[in-house]
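Late entry, written up from scratch paper. The run itself happened at the end of the previous shift, but nothing got recorded in the book at the time, so transcribing now.
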Amino acid sequence: MIEPLRRAQAILPFLLLVTACGNAEIVVPEPLWVIDTFPSQGALIPAGDVPVVVTFSAAVDEETLADAVLLEHISDSGAPIDVVPTALGEYLEESHTASFQAPSLPADTAYSLTIRADAVKALDGATLLADVVRRFKTDTDP
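Output as recorded:
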């Protein structure tokens, strides 16, 4: 009989603390989503100066966009050949859209576009749940 009483006395301060705090609300932001990309998955686009455009589900911290996109020249089997440098061109907060500039893309070339979950962050702190990957190819006629 004494042992259950000791247990009750041990947890009583904890119960009082929890009760005194009221309804503590834990707020977790909704995940960030990629709504659209250009080029899209499987797209055949013209060779040349083509921007990469990404539309997010929420306003993004512009400072996180510099490292958010990885553009790679890939083999037909999908193996990375080399990284294509990109730079943030413009971010439109009202539409949550970022455009990135890349060097002129040669004809008949396969690419992988990765929006990196570990880099981009929404203004409310939300992140992508995982990398978003799109593969596309430039047309044979420049």
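The radius of gyration is 24 Å.
(Scratch paper discarded after transcription.)
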